[in-house]
User: Fold this.
Amino acid sequence: MKKSDTVVVSDAYLPKKKTFGKKLRANLPLLIMILPGFIALLLFNYKPIYGLLIAFQDYRPRAGVFGSEWADNFGMANFIELFGNYKFGPVLRNTFTISFLRIIFGWPAPIILALLLNEIRCGWFKKLAQTLTYIPHFFSWVILAGIFKMLFSTVGPFNMIMGMFGLDPIPFFSDTTAFLVLIIITAVWQGMGSGAIVYIAALSSVDESLYEAAYIDGASKLKQVFHITIPSIMGTITTVFIMNLSGVLNAGFDQLFNMYNYSVYEVADIIDTYSYTLLMRSEWELGTALGFFKSVVGLVFVLTSNWFVKKISKDEYGIL
Amino acid sequence: MIQRTTGEKVFNVFNYIILSLLALTTLYPFLYTFTISISTKLAADTVGLHILPEWGQITLDPYKLVFRNPEIWTAYGWTLFRTVVGTTLSVFVTCFYGYALSRPNLMWKKFFSTYIMITMIFSGGQIPTFLNIKDLGLLNNVWVYILPLLISAYNTIVARSFFVGIPEALNESAKIDGAGEFRTFFQIIMPLSKPIIMTLALWIAVAHWNSWFDSMLYMTSGKKIVVQQYIQRIVNENNTAAITDFGAGENAAQNLTSETVKSASIMVTVIPILCFYPFVQKFFIKGVTLGAVKG
Assistant:
């Protein structure tokens, strides 16, 4: 090929390939915007994740995570100690009992509330009911527990009403079964109104003409609910369910810590409260191993339930 | 208008009744606490529903006692500090991150978005978090209330999905006019994003107002605690002595019970929320739907 045959194209007409430096300079303002959040996440989210290594270490606070020796048994000594601990079994059982009950009752409750609210035609009543049921979401369990301790005490108004029907007062804060019932009911009560909002939003986007068509075809109200309303919010329902399962080992630290006492420890001591006890006793490795175990189980639950939901819905629903 | 069958009419009546009862169960606990908090010893000790205070048995002594303790004022001060300063800083950090993620020309976008999403799934857990705070020298330091809450994955994603919805043409015209990213953000994007900023600010403010655990855990000296933690100590550890001792020997103490003092302390943090709530509720609902639809 002769040299004169080559076509010389001037650089100026080609799209410029930006050099890294130029790209960086153009992005500088955006990168500066990212920076504060980036550092905060690094210091307060990623550093503790790195700290999970303590679970496999013979941790000495002076040496820190970086300088501590690995634990015995290929680093598994803390887990062996944890699983052999006499507290581990009961704590795990309590956590599962409480959170499964919370999911069984707490998952459908907002759906039912949303469906009931959806049937109300009177605007101001709907708004008022929604506003009031949403209120408990805005108070910490410190406040709520303080109030419940008065309402459900043996001389409180609840037991007064029981007395009017000639029933014995229920010692909610010393009887283990009664305490569990109270925990579940108050947890469902607190989360119902806020949980309903997602469903109400989803319901408001259902096409009204579907109901009209169903009405003309002679479908009863109940049939409309099962064949139009519920299918149209199925995506939200499953998403919330999977999210609930991901928190299966979060049995509600704030609630239990503020409501329990010595006489109900045997049913109310959960992973998080036990972890707090270990923290107070400076048993760092054992507590970290417990937290690590909790995260792994939580992750397994999300992945399994997501896989399961995808499988039975033929890939229609699921979050991952 | 669709006609209703008898069955539907019956259901409708029941529906109204059920929802009214539910609404009452959320209202009653607060009414009860309020009534007890302004009752005299005599009225508070009487067994009853205490929906409304008994006329003639009303007293403000419990509140007087609660407010006479200087500790609650300092605790309230720290709560206000963290709510105001913490919320302002959080909103900026969150919106900055969310806005940057929403820009199509951001470099390493995939990395920055994965980086924040991971924190939604993994966390260090209680003890590594505590040791981390300790290593950072934040024990007994008031910034421990603010720094760890600066950014959260969920809020950032909600913010990002809002910013994505703003027409790109606005950004382009601002650029042609010579505005940089920061100027565009502050002068064009922010004014358009009032609803999302309001929603985020309220979410974060409620979280700040209600948090107590960080105060209990990180303020190891027991000073600089927030008001929720102050109440937690009274309610949980049955520590009304801490307050009542203060007014001991005075006549006022004769008309008090630990219940009325507890109730008054609870109402002190409940009332501000109840006052704001009706006006700001719509922003919360708006935010939830925003996060749900696009999240």
About this structure: Chain A has 16 helices and two strands.
